[in-house]
Input
Amino acid sequence: MAAVLACGRGAVLSHGSAAVHWELLRPLDGPIDVTVPKRTGRSRRPGIRIYRRPDIEWASSPTNGLQTRPPRPVTVRQGVPVTTVARTLEDLRRSDLRPSLVRRAIRQAEFLRLPLGEIATDGTRSDLERDFLRLCRNRRLPTPEVNVRIGRMTVDFLWRSAMLVVETDSYVTHGGTVAFEDDRQRDLALRRLGYSVHRYSERQLEREPEAAADDVAAALGLIIAA
Output
């Protein structure tokens, strides 16, 4: 809030700092990102990265009450003026932020069911899931549903007609005893519902992608043949 106030009237939190404020990313190192509606003025302030975007100004209203331009893409969250989620994601895509962080922010916004504007997503929630979906496309496997609810569980990939579930596991998210036991409990619950469950590790998909694809194809073929 101090950074926004320091930049004057109409300033809003934006870009990476807005993504952190929306809880789409973890705190980032570096200056605070603020966008101002002014075309001129101070270009630098200690600890603040300033962007100039005239389109965040309030639209002027003529006598007939109609706005001459769309409402500015800003709102207030927890008392801090900030770009909307959709505008924040658009700004991130045009910034020099690492692509992996941009994808993470988009996925988190989708997971939180926040409005994405015109940004289209493939439903994945990690680069590992994205790589597996690309592998399916490259091998011309039937396109699975992505991050689907089955009862109280959310599975990574589902071929509904074949009752086949695929889970992609990285050590970061599935390492440790608790995660290991939870995964096995989920697998058991899914099998009780009649689903076949296949798991592939990050290392398998990195080193043996063709073998994983062949395994899925065989599972689909066996189930379809039956």
